[in-house]
Each structure stands twice: as C-alpha cells, then as structure tokens.
Design brief:
Length: 965
C-alpha cells in the first residue's frame, strides 16, 4: 500500500480557459511515501493587467505578478513532479493548465471523488466547505501553496476521522475491494499505517487530533438526535385548544412569548393570518392570503395548523415553494414551534413533524442490488476495469450504508446528491437516474430491503405525523398508495402556476428515449421478466419459447427505435439551426404541429418518425401487457423473485408512460400548448403543457381537499385592487363554488411604511440591455453614488454577461475603498457583507431572492430590468386564453406576474420597521409604455411608489434621501 511519489498541488490563474489564460501562482507539497520532500510556492510573472476579479479572489496584486519570476524560471520546479500522482481538488482544472508541460507523465487524482465517497451526505463539496466547517481556517485563501496545504489537511482529517469509526472503516474498505478500488491512490492513502498519517501531519506542524474533534462535532448534525424530541414540556402558560380565542390569547401575550423569543413583536397581520388559517381548517373552506414581508407568515400558519392537528382533526400538509424552504422549515421554524407548544404543556414528541420527499427523489436499493449482480466477478465479457463504473457503484454502496444511520431529514436523496460528481462521471449520472424510486413499481412492504428504504420509511413516518413538510411538486404528485392530507397550507403560492406547469406538462425527450432504447438493447428490465418466467415454470423449459420470442421482439424494437431516433435527432437539429434566431447555448422551440398540418417536408418527416416511435412502442407495450398482471407479489416465493418483479414493473411503467405521452403529443389536444424544443447538449424534447393551469389546480388540488390555504407576500397589489384575478385563476379559485371559498382573499396591510421609507426609481435613459455600453453607462453613474453611500448596496443582474462586466468595474473602482462581495466568492459571502456593514454585494437576480439583510448594512438595491415572463408558447397561449375567458390579460396576468417578480426582489430593501433606503431599475424598454400602461404598472406595484426619472436625478435623490435618514 505504498503511496510512491506524489504531490498536492494548486494553481491560481487569470481565468478558466487554458487557451487564453495563464498560471500566476503555483504551490505544492511533494512527498515520497509519507516523507515530505519539498515545499514549493511561487508567483508567476504575467505581462498583462490582472482582472479585478482575480485580484479580489486571490489577493494577488498587479505589482506582485509584475515582480514575479517568469514561467520558464518556475517550470523546472513543476517538471520535478513528472511520474508523480498529482493530488488536487477538482483536478480537471489543474490538468487543463499543466497538460502541455507534464503530458502523460503524471496521474491526476481528484480529491472530490475521495471526499464524495467518504462523505456523500454533506451536500457541499467545495474545498472551502470542508475548510470552514471543519474550522481549519476562516475561509479558502485561493493561493497555490495555502490551498494545497489545506487540501492535505482535509484529507488527513477525513482519513483519521473515518478510520476511528470501526464500522465505517470496515464498510469503506469492503466497498473499495468489492468494486476494485483497492488499487486507487486515495484508497492507498486512506489505508496507510496510522503512524504514517500522523507523520505527514507532523511534517506540516498540523494538530490532527484537534481538527478531527472539530470535524466530528460538525458532522454530528447529520445523525439522528433524540435530544429535542425527548425534551419535557415547559410550564403551562396557555391552553392548546384549537380556537380563535386561544390563538388570539397566545399571540397577544407579548410578555410571555418574549421569554422564549426575546425579539418577538405582536403583529396584527400575523394574528389575522392565523385566524384566517384556523377558519379555513375548521370550516373546510379554501382561502387566499397575501401576507407581506414582516408579517411573521410562517409561524402565523404553523400555530393554527399545529393546534388543529393536535385535536386529532387530521394531519396538515405544509407545502413550501422549494426543497430549500422545506429544510429551513425543519431546521428553524419547527423547533421554534416546539418552543411555543412547550408553554402549552405539549412536549415536542406529541407533535410529530416529518419532512416528506417525493418518490422519485429516493434511491431504490432493490434496483441497486439487482444491478450489482451484473457487476459479478470479472470475466472476459465483463472485466470490471472501468474506474468510472466501479466508483459509481461504490458510491451508491456507501450511500445505502449511510442511509441506515443518518437522520431521516439528512439522508442522501436525489435532492442532495453530490451534483458536482454527476457532471464529472457519465456512468454515475446514468445510475442516479436508473435507481430512482417509481412508486407505481414499488413492491412496498413485500420488498426484502424495506426496512432500510428511505422512501417507505418516510411514508411510514408521514402516516403517524401531525404536520408533514413537503413542497409544491410533492403536493401535486402525491404517492399513489397514500391519501394526501385533506388540510393543506401552500406557502409561496405565487409560484403555483410554474409548479403546476412542471407537474402536469407531458414530455417526450431524447435522453429518456435513448436510455429506454439502451435498456432494451441490453435486455435490462426485461431480463427480470425472463427470470420470473423461468422460476414460475411447472416443468423445466416451459418458458423457453416465450422468453426467446420476447427477447427477439425486444431487440428488434430497440433496433427500430435507434433507426428512428437517428433520423429524429438529425432532422430536428437541421430544423432548429436553420431558424433565424437559433441560440447555441439555450433551448430553442417551435410550435408543434399535427401530422396533416406540418408546414414543410422536414416537419412531416419529424412527425412521421415520432409516429413510427409510438407505433413500435405501442406494439411492444401490448406484447408485455399480459405479463404485467401475471405475477402477484404475495405469491412470489423468495427475495430474488421480488427483486425481479420490482425491476420488471419499473421497466414496464417506463414503456407505459412513454406510450401514453407520445399518444397525447401526437394527437395535440386543443387544451395543451404543444412545442418541439432543442438544445445542443440536451437534445430534443416534445412537450405538451396545460393551457388552463387554473382548472388543473382546481381539479387536482382544491376539489380533492377539504381546506387549502394559499399564502404569499406577493399575490397582487397592496389592496388587491389589481392583479388578483390572474392569481385567483392560476390558483384554481375562480372555479370554486361560493360555499367553498371566502368571498374575497385576505390582504394583510403592509407592516412597513413603503411609501415613506423606500424610494424606488424606474429609469429609461440608458442604453438597451444588449448594448455593450449598458453596463459602463449605468456604472459610471452608480459607482459615485455607492461611494457617497459608503457602500450598503446590492446589485442584481439578469444576465451573466452584465453581471461579470459590472463585477469587474466595481472591483476595479472600489476595491481598497469599499469592500466588494461577489456571489460565488466564498460560502459565507452574504454574512461577510452583513458584518462589514459598509460593503457592496453583487450577484445574479435569483441570488437576491434568498437574501435577508436587515438594518443599515443594505440601503440601496439596483436591479437591471423589470423581470420578464418567459416568452414560451405556453405563456402566449395562456395570455390568449385568459383574455378570452376572464378579461384584461395584459394587466391582470402579464403585467401582474412581472410586478410580483419585481416585488420579490425589492423585498430585500426593507426587512424591519426601521429600515429605509432606495432602489433603482434601469430598463430602457419602458420608453415605449403609454400613459395607461404606466398607471396600471404603478397601481400593480403598490405599496411601493414608483417614480420615473433619469438615472442622474435618481442617483441624486437616493443619496439625499438616505443621508437624511
């Protein structure tokens, strides 16, 4: 298990493209086995001007590279690493810059794989995440030698920490040997004698034992903790009965609530929200509630939901907008709720709260067990010498092992799978998709591995829970064998149109078709049926003819499909690339056509080949249909047959879904918006999106539930005088009978004085966004303003190109005067901005929606454009439908949606009652707005008061307003 010659190396460069960028910093630690041979650290001369971003990221100044040795002086030290294993984090980067110098004389070893295999549950795999969370340093230095040193420290901690856990160590060693990774350099590093591990640490003067203790403390949070649930109830201050009077007594008792939440402030809006939620749940009525920022929305609905559930009135589903908000609810809001209930004599264990994740976000260990049988002992046909394949299977083996011990809310699912590894390893991406649970094919309690199944465990816990924390996608696609709770609270309801569209869009895409064809050609899935038939024979050989027939039809269908796909792929690409506005890096779409309406010969050919695909799969589906009902799980004799049954059911479900989806797409029903899309990397996708999304939400959610409360900070304008009709349609409320809804949505008054404490300017005297002068023009005005404000500014851009240009200008002009914080530059960039209190923060527009910066640290927000509705065909079709069916789509649907999106971003400005500040949107497109359009827009944006003026005057007024305080 000798390590041989190896070195940990890190480079800093002027950019990411080796063809145009250069190395400016090299650092490495060179070893022979466990002996430190050399430390090397050198800057490299560069004749050009350093980009401001690189100077900010690395701390390397222009003067430093001007005085540094040239590359030919540094190269001999780099060449000393020939015939070494080069250790780097995300080593593809180092390889891309060193390949021309070191060629094939080195072996690059990526520490991402090592850390991913040891810790597949941590979510973040940036080097800085390990450095900071394990308290090795306050942040990643982004210097060659220092980052090399920190990476080696991380590797040492990871090794000793996991070696100290005997069960984990035994499993890791077994997995690596089982999948032929025992010769992998990182396994040899991990397996070296502990005295050698400590010798390396001593050579670095690194306190390894102390760092292992700190890393263990951080990793504790991923394991099951009963401490909170076993906590006793506090002294009883309030009753726990479900009534409006009791809710009012609790939320009005500021003195006692402050004992557990010192910063609590009574808010009438929060009480109004709680009472409306309670009324809805009690009386089985659906409701819409706009609860502006600062209302205390989450606790406003959690309290009545908990009291309702505790009275055994049934579980309540809390559907958040995103999986991140699910996690926030479990980690932050639910513990606060337990604190409150403790003052009612209710112990945390009495209110069981479960986070539930949809079936397709879980991995099926049964499918994995069957697939590993194909990874049997090496033979001539299956030598098992492909590192990517072996690593992929080893990673899943470790994931299933960890999932037996991790806490239910921290298990490794598709939602928190190491995404960075999926991008690096094609086999891993295929396996990740193949192993997802399909609830229709799941054999449930009959599965031999059900005890450790994250999906079934989640369902079992949900059956016993009073509150279930889910998201919109889960709400729409609830597991088939389980009844969805009748009482539901939908947070972030302004996202429902998007989420319902995603849930109910029918899609046939190139990736899924190719994967299905590959499975058929390799007899995957169908091989499980052969096993079932053979094991069910009354006499040996009875099923041979049947199996041979199905095998022949499977291979023939796969061959036909491949032929059709080759034509489809080439002709769709030709069709799209001949369009005048073709985009090589984005999705391109054209309206889909029925067969007899194809506008040209190439379109007719595309339709015909989709039709051929449908007919081939339909015939194959009909061949397999009798066998899909032939076997009963209760009659299967052993685990192997159960495994085969689950595999075949999953395969047959894929065939069935594809046939159904192709049929709908080919018939192109009028109530769907049909498009053919193409992306150079992703291939083609044929999609049918529902036009009347409100009707679907009504049918799939409201009409099948007793009470659904939908709430958001942005449903319409402040009073609900404009924009509410579009939201009532999108949420299905327009289709409710009067007895199932309140007469009007509840619009809670804003807590903050937006009219007097926020100045919002809309400026159109700037170049158009596509103009290369847009960013220089606005920054010329904004940078002096930021200097006058002493920072305290947030910049949000809707395009990466504009973001990067503005970033360089801000860094060039302000760095050293006012600190500039950049999205992606460190895992705690927002917290650092807050602590500074006088900095500039810049990022992309979605980055802004998750930021909460109360107080004086943020007093100015810049947004580069009024958000657009994506100009997809489904949106155009919905606008036409809304106009025909309900009225003015322009103000009630189109402009209202854009206003809601802008208000989400402006919501970063005022986060407390004492906050104040200014905002600017620099959008030249509004020059074309007529008077009535501007009036409608201003009304939609209430409670914000929008002022239209030139950018120079806006800057002046913002400075004056903020300086006055």
């Amino acid at each position: 298990m000798q390590l041989g010659n190896w070195a940990v190396i890190d480079l800093e460069t002027t950019g990411v493209n080796p063809a145009n960028d250069a190395i400016i910093d090299v650092g490495y630690l060179q070893f022979e086995n466990a002996k430190l041979v050399k430390k090397f650290n050198s800057l490299v001369h560069w004749e050009h001007k350093l980009p401001p971003f690189i100077k900010k990221l690395t701390g390397i100044s222009q003067e430093m590279v001007d005085q540094a040795p040239k590359w030919h002086k540094v190269l001999p030290d780099v060449l000393e690493l020939s015939n070494h294993d080069l250790i780097a984090h995300n080593s593809d980067f180092e390889e891309s810059f060193l390949a021309e110098h070191l060629g094939k004389n080195v072996r690059y070893q990526d520490s991402l794989l090592f850390l991913g295999l040891l810790f597949p549950y941590v979510g973040q795999y940036k080097l800085e995440s390990f450095i900071v969370h394990w308290q090795l340093a306050p942040n990643e230095v982004h210097r060659g030698f220092e980052d090399s040193l920190h990476l080696l420290q991380v590797m040492l901690v990871a090794t000793l920490l996991t070696r100290q856990d005997s069960s984990l160590a035994a499993e890791f060693a077994l997995v690596c040997k089982r999948y032929r990774l025992d010769g992998w350099w990182y396994f040899r590093f991990w397996s070296q004698p502990l005295e050698d591990v400590r010798a390396i640490a001593e050579a670095l003067e690194f306190d390894l034992d102390k760092s292992v203790i700190l890393a263990k403390e951080y990793l504790k949070k991923f394991w099951v903790s009963e401490e909170t649930l076993n906590k006793s109830a506090e002294v009883k201050v309030w009753d726990a009965n479900f009534s409006g009077e009791n809710i009012k007594n609790i939320l009005s008792d500021t003195e006692n609530i402050k004992k557990i939440w010192p910063n609590y402030i009574f808010r009438q809006g929060q009480l109004d929200l709680s009472l409306r939620v309670g009324q809805s749940l009690k009386n089985n009525i659906h409701s819409l509630v706009q609860a502006p920022t600062g209302t205390g929305k989450t606790m406003g609905y959690l309290l009545p939901a908990a009291l309702f559930a505790l009275e055994n009135r049934g579980p309540v589903l809390i559907a958040t907008g995103t999986k991140a908000l699910q996690a926030q609810a479990m980690q932050k809001d639910v513990p606060k709720l337990w604190e409150l209930l403790g003052q009612m004599g209710v112990a945390p264990s009495a209110l069981k709260v479960v986070q539930l994740i949809g079936s397709q976000n879980h991995f099926c260990e049964l499918l994995f067990s069957q697939s590993t049988q194909e990874m049997a002992a090496p033979n001539l046909l299956n030598p098992r010498d492909d590192f990517s394949d072996n690593f992929s299977y080893a990673l899943f083996e470790m994931i299933f092992w960890y999932n037996q011990t991790l806490g239910q809310n921290t298990k490794v699912l598709r939602t928190n799978f190491p995404q960075v590894l999926l991008k690096k390893i094609t086999k891993l991406k295929e396996l990740e998709n193949d192993l997802k649970v399909d609830f229709r094919a799941c054999i449930g309690s009959r599965c031999p591995l059900v005890k450790n199944c994250t999906y079934m465990t989640g369902l079992r816990e949900a059956r016993e829970a009073q509150l279930i924390i889910g998201n919109h996608a889960l709400m729409f696609q609830w597991p088939g064998r389980e009844g969805r709770p009748q009482s539901i609270i939908v947070d972030e309801a302004h996202r429902l149109e998007h989420e319902a569209t995603s849930a109910f869009t029918i899609e046939v895409n190139q990736s899924e078709l190719l994967q299905l064809t590959k499975a058929m050609s390799q007899l995957q899935g169908i091989g499980a049926l052969f096993y079932l038939l053979a094991q069910s024979e009354e006499e040996k050989g009875d099923s041979t003819d049947t199996i041979n027939h199905i095998r022949g039809e499977t291979l023939k269908t796969a061959s036909d499909l491949k032929e059709y796909f080759d034509v489809l792929i080439s002709r769709i690409e030709i069709l799209m690339k001949n369009r005048p506005r073709y985009q090589s890096i984005y999705w391109n779409e054209v309206p889909w056509w029925k067969g007899d309406q194809a506008p040209g010969e190439i379109e007719k050919s595309i339709y015909k080949h989709f039709e051929f695909t449908y007919m081939a799969l339909l015939q194959y589906y009909e061949l397999l249909l009798p066998y899909s009902v032939k076997f009963e799980p209760a009659n299967l004799s052993d685990d192997q047959m159960m495994m085969a049954y689950g595999r075949f059911e999953s395969f047959f479900s894929q065939i069935s879904d594809m046939v159904d989806n192709l049929k709908i797409c080919l018939t192109a029903p009028d109530d769907y918006s049909m498009v053919l899309r193409f992306h150079e990397k992703e291939g083609f996708s044929l999609e049918a999106g529902p036009i009347n999304v409100g009707k679907i939400v009504h049918e799939k959610l409201l009409s099948t539930s007793a009470a659904v409360v939908m709430t958001s900070a942005t449903l319409a304008n402040m009073q609900g005088t404009i924009g509410v009709q579009g939201m009532e349609w999108a949420t299905g409320h327009l289709y409710l009978p009067p007895e199932k809804r309140f007469k009007k949505p509840l619009f809670i008054a804003p807590l903050y004085d937006y009219g007097n404490r926020a100045k919002v300017f809309l400026c159109d005297d700037v170049p158009f966004h596509q103009d290369k002068e847009y960013v220089p023009t606005i920054m010329k005005k904004l940078i002096p303003m930021v200097e006058a404000l002493e920072g305290k500014s947030l910049f949000l851009f809707s395009s990466r190109e504009r973001f990067e240009k503005a970033r360089e200008m801000l860094l060039d002009k302000l760095e050293g005067i006012i600190p500039v914080f950049v999205q992606g530059m460190g895992i705690s960039v927002v917290e650092e901005f807050k602590r500074t209190g006088s900095g500039v923060l810049i990022g992309m527009e979605l980055f802004g929606e998750g930021i909460d910066i109360p107080g004086d640290a943020l007093q100015f927000v810049f947004i580069d454009k009024i958000p657009d509705l994506r100009m997809e065909k489904v949106v155009t079709d919905r606008r036409e439908f809304f106009d025909r069916s309900f009225g003015n789509e322009f103000s009630e649907y189109y402009m209202a949606a854009r206003a809601r999106s802008l208000q989400q971003k402006l919501g970063r400005l005022l986060r407390t009652e004492t906050d104040f500040g200014g905002a600017m949107i620099a959008d030249p497109r509004i020059k074309s707005w007529k008077g009535k359009t501007s009036e409608k827009w201003n009304e939609l944006m209430l409670p914000y008061k929008i002022e239209r003026t030139g950018i120079t005057e806006a800057c002046q007024q913002i400075v004056e307003f903020i300086k006055k305080g």
